[in-house]
Write a structure and sequence with these properties.
CATH class: Alpha Beta
Number of domains: 1
Number of helices: 4
Shape: globular
Oligomer: single chain
Largest sheet: 7 strands, antiparallel
CATH topology: Cathepsin B, Chain A
Strand order of the largest sheet: 3-9-4-5-6-8-7
Distance between the termini: 20 Å
Structural class: alpha+beta
Helix content: 10-25%
Length: 148
């Protein structure tokens, strides 16, 4: 989604094969952040940078999507409370960060504890948006962008 937002044609199968070959994805264990910082190994005109939470907020305010790794959401009864999960922060909307996360979730229409997460009320039932403070508590953030 992030690479495609810059008008680059992407192929999920090609990305998966590349990530596995380079060690960025390990079957049974998942994908690591090196898949994002090493993106120019697959798309030579792209750069991936690991950034801070404040830098992520700045990029979102500029309309740039951010990949992030969820934090510990156990106290929120969230979909991904028991394990880390990568998502895309697509934009800002007041006190909320809009999320692109089509993963299935059993909390349809739920806002989670403390109203910090909203779940899509129809398919796909992934996280629709979360509060800015919850987003900023994420474990890690990456900014992918074209080389200039």
């Amino acid at each position: 989604m992030v690479v495609k937002s810059y008008g680059i044609d992407t192929d999920p199968e090609k990305i998966g094969v590349w990530a596995t070959r380079t060690g960025a994805r390990v079957c049974g264990k998942g994908t690591g952040g090196q898949a994002f910082t090493g993106i120019n190994g697959l798309y030579s005109n792209m750069i991936g940078e690991k950034i801070s939470a404040s830098e992520a907020m700045q990029r979102l305010s500029e309309g740039k999507p951010i990949i992030f790794l969820t934090g510990d959401y156990k106290s929120l009864d969230a979909c991904y409370a028991s394990s880390a999960h990568f998502m895309v922060a697509a934009s800002l909307d007041g006190d909320w960060v809009n999320i692109n996360d089509p993963a299935l979730c059993g909390m349809r229409g739920n806002k989670g504890k403390a109203g910090k997460i909203e779940i899509n009320s129809s398919a796909p039932y992934g996280i629709k948006r979360m509060t800015k403070d919850l987003f900023q508590s994420g474990a890690a953030f990456w900014y992918l962008h074209p080389k200039t």
